[in-house]
Amino acid sequence: MGFSLVGAFAVIGVSILVAIEVFTGSLLPTITDIDDSxxxxxxxxxxxxxxxxxxxxAIWNDPNTEITANNTGSxxxxxxxFNILIEGLLKQFTCSEPTLYPEESAxxxxxxxTNSGDVIKIVTDNGVSDYYGY
Length: 134
Known about the structure:
Blueprint: H1 2-49, E1 53-61, E2 64-71, E3 77-78, E4 83-86, E5 89-91, E6 93-95, E7 99-100, E8 105-111, E9 119-123, E10 129-133
Antiparallel strand pairs: 1-2, 2-8, 3-7, 4-5, 4-9, 6-8, 9-10
C-alpha cells in the first residue's frame, strides 16, 4: 500500500502540473493579445477625439472643383487617406499637400463640376468628417 499511494500521488501531481502548464500556455498569449487590442483601441479613440476638420470653401475652377479644408484638431492627417463625397458619391481627388498638419489648410482638387446646392463631405481616416453646402 505504501508504494502505490506514493505512485498514485506522483501521477496525479504530474498530471496537475501538465494541466496547469497547458492552461497557462494558451491563456497568457490570449490575455496579451487582448491587452494589445485595448491599447490600440485607446490610441484610436484619443486620435479621434483630437481630430477635427472644417471645410472653409469650395469653388468650381474648370475642370476641377477646389475644396479648401482646414485641420482644426491636434493630430497630423494623411490626405491620401481621406474620402470626399459629393451628393453621397465617392469622388477621386488630388491634394495640394500629402500631409495636413494641425492649424494648416490644404486644397483638394475633385475632377468635375459641382452644382449649386450640392453637399460636400470630407471624411478623415479615423472617421471624423465635415459637411459643406456648396
